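Below sits my pick:
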Amino acid sequence: MRSFPMLNDMQRAGHEHASASFTANAAPVLEVGQGEPFRLDARSLLTGGLFESTGEYEKLSIPVTGPVAVRGANPGDALRVDVHEIRIDSRGAMVTLPGRGGFSGTLDRAGHVVEIVDGMVRFGDGITIPVRPMVGKIGVAPDGPSPNSSTVGFHGGNMDCKDVVAGSAVILPVQVPGALLFAGDLHAVQGDGECSLTAVEVEGSVVLSCRVLPNASLQRPVVLSGGSVITIGDGDDLDEAARHALDDMLALVVADRGWPREKAAMLLSAAADVAVSQLVNARASVKVTLAERYFLSPPFAATTPDTMNA
């Protein structure tokens, strides 16, 4: 376990440095070296008190904090972002909205505030849910139009991948000098799909560090978590998102093993899992998970150097 510098010595960006988009047009709020830990505070639906004073939940949004410039990151590289710690508040919120969510029947506008005590979400009516804090939005600035913070894409963004937890890493294709990293949208817990529109949305903070992987060719984000490699695909619907996630995993296995596409595809059919990350936003996200033991080489194989001790 790495011992971090005292909080006062670690660079930190408060949630007042909120951004509604992943943009290359904003000045960096932090500049960090490779391997240097830093903390980002994150806003939630409860930030500012509007959630509990208005029922117009559709007017609320969850921005990201940033951007953070990483020294040595350049277009054509990939950025490995290690998630070291996620701290969450003792309250969370959820909403439903008409016309939103993954259900066939429409849902009414509703809000729900929960308490978080002793590692459990007190959902109500005697139901408790174990917390599993995660980062819903993490990405870099594209070289071009600035996607809304609620959009998932090649830059990362609103992936809502529940595997982005403390101890995991996200690898992102660098688009602009310095990478310009943003993160936010912390969840106390989320199920695959985030089917009602939100997870248990919480304020909090996340400690990250970054490493540059020079000349790494990635089309979209890759998550390393729990001994698995996870590709994230996005699309206008789940079919398109699944194809992107499968194509990306296929390309990783072909490059790693030197196999024909057909043999790699058979391995995925036997050993990989396809699941929904989220199906409720403007673009859906699907993940393909394959154990790292099927890879031979860094940064995906189990022999990848421990960046925490580098």
